[in-house]
Amino acid sequence: MNKVTLLLALGLLVGSCARKAIPTGSTTGPGTSTPIAEPAVRAVNTSFLFLSAKGKAQVTMKGSQQGANLAVRVRRDSIIWVSASLVGIEGVRAVLTPDSVLVLNRLEKTYFSGGYDYLSKLLNVPITFEQMQALLLGDYLPAPTGITPKVTEEDNGRQRVTYPLADVIIERLLQGGTGRVQQLKVSDTGMQRNLTVDYTDFRPLDEQPTLMFAHATFIQAQQPSAGVVTAAINFTKVNAGRERLAFPFTVPKGYKRQN
Measured at the alpha carbon of residue 133, what is the angle toward residues 106 and 5, in degrees to the nearest 5? Predict the structure, then answer.
C-alpha cells in the first residue's frame, strides 16, 4: 500500500462527542452570510457509544478500479477499527485511537505504527482522531477555538458553514430539517489539492429511529501527484447502541515496519 492509498484509506474510512448546536435566533434569510462569534449552526450529530457497520467500497485511481468488503467498528472518542478484505481474505486492517495510528498490510506483510504527526506532515494539514471520527460518522465538527466560521443560510433550511484551518478552507453543507452533514469540502488552492465528501442514502437507525444516518458516501480527492481519486462506500448494515465490541489488532511475526 503506497502512501497515497494509505492516506486515502484512513481519510475515507475513518467527531467529536455528540453535540447539537442550539440556534441563537439569527434573522438572516436565504443567500445571506454573516460571520458571528456564536454561529446558529443547526447541526445534529450521532450520540451512540458503539457502532458496527459492513459494506463495500470501490476506489478508482489513475484509471484502475479496486473493490473491497469493509467492516467498521467504533467506540466513540476511543477507537476506530477498519478491516478491508477481498473474497473473504483480509488485506488491510487499521486501528485509530486519539493518539496513535496502526495499519496492518497483509498483502505486503508490512505494518505502520505512529502518530497523527505523520499524517499531518504528509497532508500538510493538522489531522486528529476527532476529525477522522467526524468524517466517518458524518458528524459536524465545530471550528477550533479562536476561529469564527461564516454561516450562510440557503434554500430549504440548509446551512453552509465555512472556516479556515491551517492553509485550507473547510466547508460543510447541513441538511435542512435533519441537521445532518450532507457535504464536506476541504480546499487548498495554493497546493491545488481538494477533497469533497458527499453523504447520501440517509436512513433511520433501528436503535435511534429519530436519527438519519448516511449509508452511502462518495469521496473525490484531487492532488497533483495522484490526479483525481474517487471512492464510493456503501454500507449494507449499520448497528449502533451500547453493545460492547472487540477491536483486535496483532502484528504477525516477520512483518516489516514502514517508516
Answer: 35
DSSP characters for 132-181? HHHHHHT---PPPTT---EEEE-GGG-EEEEEEETTEEEEEEEPTTT--E
What distance lies between CA 250 and its chain's CA centroid?
24
Rounded alpha-carbon distances, angstroms, from residue 88 to 22, 44, 71, 176: 45, 36, 12, 40
* CA 223 vs CA 103, 228, 230: distances in Å: 23, 7, 12
Residue 254, C-alpha cell as written in the block? 516477520
Give me the residue label for grid cell 441537521. Answer: 179
- Specify the pTM: 0.83
Q: For the chain, what's the residue count?
A: 259
* pLDDT, tens digit, 9 for 90 and up, residues 53-110: 999 998 888 788 888 899 999 999 999 999 988 878 888 899 999 999 898 988 889 9
Distance CA 139, CA 125 (A): 19
| Whole-angstrom distance, CA of residue 72 vs CA of residue 217 | 14
- H helix runs in 14-157, sequence order: 116-123, 129-137
Query: Which DSSP string do the residues of 219-242 spell out, in sequence order?
Result: EEEEETTTEEEEEEEEEEEEEEES
Whole-number Å distance between alpha carbons of 215 and 81: 18
Please state, as a whole number, how many other Cβ atoms lie within 10 Å of the Cβ of residue 216: 15
